[in-house]
Amino acid sequence: MEKKQDSFFLRAKKPQGNNKKVDKQKTKPLEKDKEKRQNNYDTNRPVINDKKDVSEKKPFDKKAYRLKKYSKKYKLEQWEEKRKKKLLYDYHKSIKNDPLLGSYTPKSFDEDTIDSNPPEVGKFVRNPDLIEKEKATKLVQKTKKDPFQKAKEHYEKIKLEKLEKQKELQKSKEEKAQKLQEYKKKKQERYKKLSKKTKKGQPVMTGRLEMLLEKIQK
Fold first, then answer.
1. Residue 164 covered by a domain
2. Whole-angstrom Cα distance, residue 131 to residue 149?
3. Is residue 153 located within the same domain as residue 163?
């Protein structure tokens, strides 16, 4: 048998097909143009720094700081602004919680004067909204209580509760003491009956028999 030659000694096979050779001289000018364009773009490109430097700080405005800290005029203006805001807030709140808001019922011109006793003809009639508002405020004033009065009632209520608790505790203590006294009394009577003896030192049986009878009867 014929031995095969090693692959190392085999001749390199030539690639099949007609490969066209690319001219290096033609590709060189194209590469140069590309490089020029890239350089032009790099030089003319606008630089955008999106990230702000953390180290950069605003300059300290000493005048504004001193004005805020020491100026009475500035403090007064601030206080006035806060006051205006609070007043506006309270006003809007009162309008929002007004029960008569949007509840207007049309009335005849002389209705208010005719109902009055005696009838006051020819007098100026007030707006029915105002009349209703006054009535509502009077009712609210009657139903509503002052915070001082509320606090007073609350304090009195707590005081009464404390007194009731103290009375209950005292009552329970007295009952316990009474029961203890009764128990001690019974114990003493029992001891006397059991400890009775004759001159010779023998126990008296009458007391013991009475105790037995009581137990049997129970």
1. yes
2. 28
3. yes
Task: Give the tens place of pLDDT for each residue, 45-56.
Answer: 766 555 555 567
> What CA–CA distance (Å, rounded) separates 32 from 21?
21
**Is residue 191 in a domain?**
no
Angstrom distances, CA of residue 64 to CA of 29, 56, 59, 104, 209? 65, 20, 12, 53, 108
Query: 193 and 211 in contact (C-beta within 8 Å)?
Result: yes
pLDDT category of residue 79 using cuts at 50, 70 and 90: very high
pLDDT 10s digits, 150-182: 888 888 899 999 999 999 999 999 999 999 999
Whether 149 and 179 map to the same domain: the answer is: yes
Q: Which residues contact 197 (CB under 8 A, 6 or more apart)?
A: 203, 204
Determine the structural domain holding residue 179 and report its residue range. Answer: 145-183
Domain endpoint, select from 118, 144, 170: 144
Is residue 135 domain-shared with residue 161, that is, in the same domain? no
pLDDT given for residue 122 in this prediction: 46
Q: Which amino acid is at 2?
A: E
Any idea what the Cα angle at residue 119 is, between residues 118 and 124, rounded to 5°? 130
Residue 41 lies in a domain: no
- The two tokens of residue 141 are 């004033």
Number of domains in the chain: 2
